TrEMBL record:
One of its GO terms (molecular function) is ATP hydrolysis activity. SMART domains: AAA. It comes from Lactobacillus rodentium. Residues 6-240 form the ABC transporter domain. CDD domains: ABC_HisP_GlnQ. The keyword Endoplasmic reticulum does not apply. Keywords: ATP-binding, Nucleotide-binding, Transport. It comes from the Bacteria. This is Glutamine ABC transporter ATP-binding protein. PROSITE patterns: ABC_TRANSPORTER_1, ABC_TRANSPORTER_2. Belongs to the ABC transporter superfamily.
Length: 250
């Protein structure tokens, strides 16, 4: 039986008078890989940033791993311990080596012993194909390498959920595939993933669900093949035709 790990119940989010999220009702089960697509400015990034409390909600309920984010007594650090996030622009510590970037949080938050921490970090670097970069600094890495380090850093915390906020949009095209391959590896580990992405191939092939978002609302929530083959809304059909045209260079 599926176990919900993220539940949105009538969630609303405003920035001043701007209505960013409108009556969001979503349940994401443990182990699901959910891709969120939609036009720029539709609220996709706002949606996932509410899941670990980076953006507070204005009303409704948001339950993450048993914690109610609308409750002021909720300790957001406890949530973030189990909910990792991979950002568009990596957010690595420039003054720390690759290895230090990965071992820092587990040492401080999880109190993981140094020997075990280093072994775990090196294993993860091997998984993402960067074990020979352990003693380099972020400035010495390409964008794709930085993003793979950022994913390894998230995995080092043994999270129940990883949020990805457009993880490939800042990368050169030839670097994207390496990052997507690592994300496929994460999906195979059974970790719950919520991925805001422009990569339609990933959304179609890897995700269990696809959510189409526009103007702060969930317009469609389908299995990926259903969405791509039979979009229900006119807005989704317009979006897909534009995306396909751009991919073909039109």
């Amino acid at each position: 039986m599926a176990t919900p790990i993220i539940e949105f119940k009538h969630v609303e989010k405003y920035y001043g008078t701007y209505h960013a999220l409108r009556d969001i009702n979503l349940t994401i089960d443990s182990g699901q890989v959910v891709s969120i697509i939609g036009p720029s400015g539709s609220g996709k990034s706002t949606l996932i940033r509410t899941i670990n409390g980076l953006e507070p909600i204005n009303s409704g309920k948001l339950i993450v791993n048993g914690f109610d984010l609308a409750d002021k007594k909720t300790d957001l650090n406890k949530i973030r311990k189990d909910v990792g996030m991979v950002f568009q622009h990596f957010n690595l510590y420039d003054n720390h080596t690759v290895l230090e970037n990965i071992t820092l949080a587990p040492k401080i938050v999880l109190k993981r012993p140094d020997k075990e921490n280093k072994e775990r970090a090196m294993d993860l670097l091997k998984r993402v194909g960067l074990e020979n970069r352990a003693n380099m600094y972020p400035a010495q890495l390409s964008g794709g390498q930085k993003q793979r380090v950022a994913i390894a850093r998230s995995l080092a915390m043994d999270p129940k959920v990883i949020l990805f906020d457009e993880p490939t949009s800042a990368l050169d095209p030839e670097m994207i595939q390496d990052v997507l391959d690592v994300m496929r590896y994460v999906a195979d580990q059974g970790i719950t993933m919520v991925v805001v992405t422009h990569e339609m191939g990933f959304a179609r092939e890897v995700g269990d669900r696809l959510i189409f978002f526009d103007q702060g609302q969930v317009l469609e929530d389908e299995k990926p093949e259903e969405f791509f083959d039979h979009p229900q809304s006119e807005r989704a059909r317009q979006f897909l035709s534009k995306v396909i045209t751009e991919k073909l260079g039109g």
